[in-house]
What does this fold into?
Amino acid sequence: MDVLEIARWQFGITTVYHFLMVPLTIGLGVTVAVMQTAWHRTGKAEYLRMTKFWGKLFLINFIMGVATGLVQEFQFGMAWSEYSRFVGDVFGAPLAMEALLAFFVESIFLGLWIFGWDRLPKRIHLATIWCASLATVFSAYFILVANSWMQHPVGTEMIDGRAVMTDAWAVFTNSTAMVTFPHTIFGAFAVAGGFLLGISWYHLYKRRHAGIDTVDATGRVIVGESATLGKNRDKVDYKVWIKSLRIGAVVAMISFAGVALSGHAQAQLMIEQQPMKMAAAEAACHDGTGFSLLSIGDLRSGGATTCDDVVGVFEIPGLLSFLAHENFTTEVKGVNTLLPEYQEKYGTHLPDDPMYGDRAGSEINYLPVMEVTYWGFRLMITLGGLSAVAAAVALWLTRKGTVPLNKWISRLALFGMLAPFGANSAGWIFTEMGRQPFVVAPNPSFEGIDQVFMYTAAAVSPGVSAGEMLFSLIALTSIYAFLLVVEVVLLTRYIRGGIGSAMPEFHERPGDGDNDQDTDALSFAY
Amino acid sequence: MDFLPTLWFILIAILWTGYLFLEGFDLGVGMLMKLFAKNEKQRRVLLNTVGPVWDGNEVWLITAGAATFAAFPYWYASLFSALYIPLTLVLVALIFRAVAFEYRGKAHTLAVRNAWDWAIFLGSFIAAFGVGAMLALSTTGLPLNANGDRVGGPFAWFNQYAVLGGIGVVAFSLIHALAFLGLKTDGDIRDRAAKLLARWLPVALLPLACWAIAVVWINASLAALAPLLLAVVAMVFAWIQARARREGWAFIGLGVFLLAGVAAIFTAAYPNVLPSTIDAAYNLTVSNASSTPYTLRLMSIVAAFGLPAVLAYQTWTYWVFRKRITESHIPAAHPVIPII
It folds into this structure.
């Protein structure tokens, strides 16, 4: 592997990993803020417990997002210095704004929220979680503006060999960003919805399994209580889980609708802005109208010039045209039509410039890796759709107040939590790999701007050796793997601990221990 | 003179000052977890003095990096790629430190907790050293070619200034943390911190002062003499106050020392943002490394609103958590009891 390939693997691994934490942070943050608002308004104990329990899991996850986000910001300069020089004038601005306007708010107000229980007036304490959680959404907007500019550069001119911002409004209202933002945010809420649903389901199942909750002849729940060995599971505990479950299921279903609608809008833009990505998503060699359900053949064999070995086995006629054009007849261009167009516009060979390293003068392959785009696209849709269906089924199954006493369904519920994570990852891998061989994809629809593009091969740091790059790849990957285990172990422990893991006082009975602690100074301590 | 690039050069210097001032004491507290705290209670006191604020402090680093990217893409690209290995280590250090802060209290066994303590200690040390080395090299130069790429291999950056800057920031962070603990704690921790502060203050500030003097000397900068002098005065002032056990004034003295020291370093380095040690013609300067006036204007407007807002609500945070923390405040550790 050469420097470029290692750098790409590193960026891919660190970004996908970072984006395991990010959607959960975004979705769960706002959800916790809503729960705390409910507590503030109603004063009901279950909302306080929900806030504390889900807030605890939110924090365990948040810190991983922070720690891995730092790597993202640094590695543009470290591993992709030519990219940074080329795009800095445009791309740096949203990143700096993210830090200054969003990330500061997130970090500082979250600190206030964590340590401010009982310290701040209740109303202000509630405001801190709203500030922090809405800032995560803003944060996503700025980052997606930056990413969307790479997919579809706007508001920019090519001056002295670099992209220069000429219209900030255009950059910050990029049509790509306007559809990617809701798609990503809904995707994040789908993750949070599934998370609430799966964990609550498991707790309700365990309550039934332990004989605490039972059902009457009609299947309606009879809520019970248990307080053995300091393990307090009262009737409010039941309310926490059933409400969380229903909130999660509803959030997941609404999110999927939002994801589907915004995804449809994205497809319509993609066909204009990155037609090759759409063709590669369909593994469509020839123009057509059908959405492929299964295509077989050697997706790569044609290389840069031909694409003839892919055979559609099942396809739904007209569906692809509907996704892209909202009718059933307009043909969507296939790879064989697009390749000559790209070659004519952007050349057949990389320039003989030292910035391309060993690849200078080599033939350009405009075709993304179709196994990845084709299956990534399908995996995203399938996993996303399945989790929405699961949420609807869950609502139906729990209509009488509790879950069925079935071990397998409850395991499935836990496992199903992973589906929205997978859908997010698959979607990102698809959209980033589908942009290749460009790191900044050319914008075909604007006059004069179609010279603003950059091949990934030209973006990597020329001064960094393969050895250095390999060192960081191995170091980061192994640390990330280790920390994933740590996070999962901790999350599992706190999930299994239930409410008591976030509210230690909950397990304590009067006279159970030292209650003389000075709660005024430290109501929540590391 | 290029007004906007110069403004952004100053703003980035301010961001780094903010970072070193704020994260300075929490990096220091992280190191003191192993060097200073006597027992578990004291370690938890130390951790909780920075608990609500350390994450906000670290955002100054992220903002300094992102602002450099936006305002001086060539500076950002050359500096970060030239220091590939050390910055990788800084990232690893910051990852472990952040995770350890959050997860330490959730450990079930002493061995695991001890491991997280080491992560906090080493993470703080390596991050402080790495950031110091990076800033020192940015102000004294790296072997860069005409394209701004490092030549001479992965360790070509290593020289006396890297060591000086690294030690400078580590030592400053330690002493700054002792002053901070004097303000944030009481009892044994406060007393011992005050004694150590009075004893070690001048020694700890020396490397950072040497770095400032070196940069002023290399660039023969007369304009930087004034802030340099102020830094020396602040150092003497802080020492006098520390010996008199006026903790608030000592802390302020350290802050002025840092501000003046960084001002001297950046004034002396101006207009270079990153000199090349190979050929002065390859120097990156405020003019040839910056973004366009359009982008800088946009960023200036954002910073004009954003930065004062950050200062306001961050100051408020410190006010909210202004109480001193003592060992008696630390609640008993609550193990998580599995109920399912």
